[in-house]
Design brief:
three-stranded parallel sheet, cytoplasm, Rossmann-like_a/b/a_fold, binds adenosine-5'-diphosphate, 2 domains, ligase, aa-tRNA-synth_Ic, Tyrosyl-Transfer RNA Synthetase, mainly alpha, aminoacyl-trna synthetase
Length: 332
């Protein structure tokens, strides 16, 4: 009943980090190039669930658009746009606030992490975030959502909302969307703390590789990455209790488009004194062309705004009839 359509989004906060690139953007490009219809959003309404300086937010929005394009997203083959420019996201988000249950939201681990100890002081928007995310996806009847592992629970909640809406209104209107979480880098870990995922909102810049880092910074961050002092084993099995080492192998594998098995086979018996510089060289060779292209694109902000405006018009053309039908179903 539903034609295959891909939707995903990233928040315009800080610079993209290697986990966003390997776990999300690189996959977005692969899906675009596979010929399926792809819609990629800059989710600025999600960004403001925590405080954003308005000028920084605008700059981060343009920079994320530049990161998308420099990474290989083609504004002609994919729809690239900014969430706040398509009003249907907020409108459907409200309807889904009335479908989703408080208890569902309370179980979201990201809410618990982000709200911290003082949940009373978190914004209401942060609590309702997964309901807006469901609206982002279902506003386009998207069937597939490529994301990192940290977003799995939110996509499951999107499925729950679609099922409850269809059930409550006795319709088969929203698809039950599939998360697409594949590859060696679905959860890239912090370089400083093997128990946390790499994040662009981590206060420690040394915990992540930014797409905008220069070659020396990349080399230094990998050199200082926490690891044990054992050489790499013959097989992946030997990395079972070595999460930091496993993380670097996964990063290498995703960048080189190899399996983690092939990476340990290649470096078996070598220490991090050899592996880390090889990883840094590989990362620089893959990321520096993207950073250069981002700089070129950022020099012409009017052209970025034009691309996003065109994308918003095309996104809106898909969203409007779906929202209108939703209003009809609900009786609005
Ligand atoms: P961040 O936590 O860096 O602010 P976002 O919440 O904006 O990132 O997530 C954007 C996309 O990047 C999502 O699909 C998310 O699952 C993915 N992602 C974020 N961090 C990682 C990571 N460390 N490893 C793999 N994918 C990630
Ligand atoms: Na995240």
């Amino acid at each position: 009943k539903f034609t295959p359509r891909v939707f995903s989004g990233i928040q315009p906060t800080n610079h993209l980090q290697l986990g966003n690139y390997l776990g999300a953007v690189k996959r977005f490009v692969e899906m675009q190039n596979s010929g399926i219809e792809t819609i990629y959003c800059i989710v600025d309404l999600h960004a403001i669930t925590v405080w954003q300086d308005p000028v920084d937010l605008q700059n981060a929005t343009r920079e994320l658009a530049a990161s998308y394009i420099a990474s290989g997203l083609d504004p002609k083959r994919s729809i690239l746009f900014n969430q706040s420019q398509v009003p249907g996201h907020a409108e459907l988000g409200w309807i889904f606030n009335c479908v989703a249950r408080m208890g569902w939201m309370n179980r979201m681990t990201q809410w618990k992490d982000k709200a911290g100890k003082d949940a009373e002081k978190a914004s209401l928007g942060l609590f309702a975030y997964p309901s807006l995310m469901a609206a982002d996806i279902l506003l386009y009847h998207a069937t597939h959502v490529p994301v990192g592992e940290d977003q799995k629970q939110h996509v499951e909640l999107t499925r729950d909302i679609a099922i409850k809406f269809n059930h409550d209104f006795k319709v088969d209107f929203f698809p039950v969307t599939q998360p697409v979480i594949e590859g060696a880098a679905t959860r890239v870990m912090s370089l400083r703390d093997g128990s946390k995922k790499m994040s662009k909102s981590d206060p420690s810049d040394a915990s992540r590789i930014n797409l905008t880092d220069d070659a020396d910074t990349v080399a230094q961050k990998f050199r200082k990455a926490r690891t044990d002092s054992e050489p790499l084993p013959e097989t992946l099995e030997g990395l079972k209790d070595r999460p930091e080492a496993r993380n670097l192998v996964n990063i290498y594998a995703a960048l080189a488009e190899m399996t983690p098995e092939a990476v340990v086979a290649e470096y078996a018996g070598q220490g991090f004194g050899t592996f880390k510089p090889a990883l840094a060289d590989l990362a620089v060779s893959k990321l520096s062309p993207i950073a250069d292209e981002m700089k070129r694109l950022m020099a012409d902000p009017a052209e970025i705004d034009r691309i996003l405006g065109d994308g918003a018009a095309r996104a809106n053309a898909i969203a409007e009839p779906i929202l209108a039908q939703t209003y009809d179903i609900v009786g609005l």
